[in-house]
Amino acid sequence: MTITFILLQTTTQTSQPTVTIWTVIAVIAALISAFSAFKSRGYARRAFNLAQQNYNDRQANFSLYLIDAFRWTTKTKPKQRYLLFHITIFNKSDSKSSFKAELEIEYLRNDNSVARAIIPHDEKHHKEIPQKDISAFSNDIRIEEKGMQSKWMIFEQPQNAFIDYRIEKYCVKVTDTQGNNQITECSIIKELTND
């Protein structure tokens, strides 16, 4: 409506046909330019959304699933205890990821305060376990993009550390190279027998 008004006003004010033609051409060029800018804005927004999605897909993104948990106590003196957690790690990102695992044991002290012991995963403890058919994660866990691994994490429980205390829960914490972490918890651990 406004453009029609401008064209009509321009044609009535000028008596020369060449000025009117140039004015009409300039208005049409301005309209085409405005439409082109509007369409470019839409393309730029879509390109930004795609770039943002691509960036998010490349960021570290993983999840954990606890399958089973056992405690193995050696029969030799001094007795050693090993905590075994069967964990599945899903790497949801579009790039390979590397992880470290540790076990956080929360326990209650005599004064009812909560304390936490942190123990790193060590694949070398695998040789202490009588079931040789289980496969343990390496100390430096690497998982391909969009990949999944399901293995055992093995932690050595400190000797006599929790004799006088009640263990509240076991938390397996897996951290990637960028500091993102996931935690899976359990309160009950089954005893692993040599049968």
User: In CATH's first tier, which class of the largest domain applies?
Assistant: Mainly Beta
CATH topology of the largest domain: Immunoglobulin-like
Report mean pLDDT, rounded to a whole number. 81
Q: Work out the radius of gyration.
A: 33 Å
Number of strands: 9
Query: With helices defined by DSSP (H or I, 4 residues minimum), what is the helix count?
Result: 2
Largest sheet: 5 strands, antiparallel
Total number of domains: 2
CATH architecture descriptor of the largest domain: Sandwich
State the end-to-end distance: 90 Å
Series of secondary-structure elements, N-terminal to C-terminal:
HHEEEEEEEEE
Helix content: 25-40%
Relevant terms:
195 residues, Immunoglobulin-like, 5-stranded antiparallel sheet
Protein model, in words:
With 195 residues, the protein is an alpha+beta fold. The protein is built from two helices and nine strands. It has two domains: 57 residues, no CATH class; 130 residues, Immunoglobulin-like. Strand 3 and strand 4 form a beta hairpin.
How would the blueprint of this fold be written?
Blueprint: H1 2-13, H2 17-58, E1 62-73, E2 81-91, E3 97-108, E4 114-120, E5 141-143, E6 148-157, E7 166-176, E8 181-186, E9 190-191
Parallel strand pairs: 1-9
Antiparallel strand pairs: 1-2, 2-6, 3-4, 3-5, 3-7, 7-8
Helix pairs in contact: 1-2
Short description:
With 195 residues, the chain is of the alpha+beta class.
